[in-house]
Amino acid sequence: MSNSIIINRVKHPSILADHRVDPVTKKLLKVGDEVCVCAVCKTVYLKDVWKNTMKGKCCKQTKTLLCIPNTEYGVKETPPVIEKSYKTHFLFFLLATFLFLGLIIYWYNLYNNEHIQKQNLYFDIKKLSEKNRDKNKEYGNKIDSLEKENNNLKNSKKSLDSVLNRLNNISKSTFCIGKNIHETNSDSYDQNYLMFLKTYVSLKIDNLYVKPNQNDYLIIELYNEFNVLIDSIEVYVKSNIGWNKIDVNFEIPNPGVYYLKRTGNVPLFYDKVSGNYDSCVDSNIKILGCSNSINEYYKREYYQYYYDIHYSLLTE
Ligand SMILES: [Zn+2]
Predict the structure, then answer these.
(1) Where are the beta strands (DSSP E) in 79-147?
(2) How far is the CA of 75 from the centre of ligand 1 (A)?
(3) Which of 14, 30, 205, 228 is most deeply packed, by most CB within 10 A?
(4) 34: CA distance to ligand 1 center in Å?
């Protein structure tokens, strides 16, 4: 018995598309036709034609195929659309699976990374807060010690201020008047001159300098303008030391005109006054002049004996 095949629209699309005809009857092969295929030359015959005419004749044999081969490729005709669809589906499924797997791996990594980052951040924050606490403690201690130091400095400043005040008061109440021992312009000695002064406030002559040209006793006296002796001092002066500092300590509480007179045999240094008595006046005292007569207060030709006269103000 020969194999026969019924032409199917789905299974045999190429036969239908080619408008294949039965080679004997020239009838167009269509869906539902029962056909036989020569096993050797693969020619497709209507079943009746094969059975009645071509069996044993075509290629001198009687065998037929179980299916219609694809004449172009010589392979079994299979529904290409369905096969293609399966392939596409399979490929799509594979792709989707890979994509899904990829996504899962990506998400997992993302989650993992995020988790690790969060954990690291948490540890960092913990460390930082610990550090911060330590720093705060340290700064607190520092601030405490700085405050202590500040207080100490404030106290030091207070005591220094009071010392400075006292020093200021001392320096304010101590003055110097008269010619300077370093600014002399001759080398003459005599012993008969008086120095006239005018005071405007209560003051005390603390000390002054004289330069003798021999060693001897010297007496310096202070008189008021009425020739009344106010105070005096006797000292031993030496020529070999040059300028002798004498602490006279003459107190002059009442403002007025006074003069200094020296007695004894020791000549003292004097020099010329070049035009003015600039160094001999301030707001407290004025050196009026030097002369050998109590009637000539303002004689200023020479400057006799008393240099760098230091005085201080008498306060009640
Ligand atoms: Zn044949």
Answers:
(1) none
(2) 17
(3) 205
(4) 17
User: What is the CB-side half-sphere exposure of residue 25 using CA atoms within 13 A?
Assistant: 15
Dist. CA 60 → ligand 1 center (Å): 7
For residue 76, the CA-to-ligand 1 centroid distance in Å is 18
- Report residue 236: phi and psi, to 5°: -100, 120
Q: Per-residue confidence of the chain (316 residues) as pLDDT tens digits?
A: 788 999 998 888 888 888 889 999 999 999 999 999 999 998 999 999 999 999 999 999 999 999 888 654 344 444 444 456 678 888 889 999 999 999 999 999 999 899 999 999 999 999 999 999 999 999 999 999 999 999 999 999 888 887 787 676 565 578 888 888 888 878 899 999 999 999 999 999 999 999 999 999 999 999 999 999 999 999 999 999 999 999 999 999 999 999 999 999 999 999 887 656 767 888 899 999 999 988 888 888 888 899 999 999 887 6
Assess contact for 46 and 38: CB atoms under 8 A: no
Could you count the other beta carbons within 10 Å of the beta carbon of residue 167? 10
Q: For the chain, what are the domain ranges?
A: 5-78, 88-172, 175-313
Match 């004749």 to its residue by tokens. Answer: 57
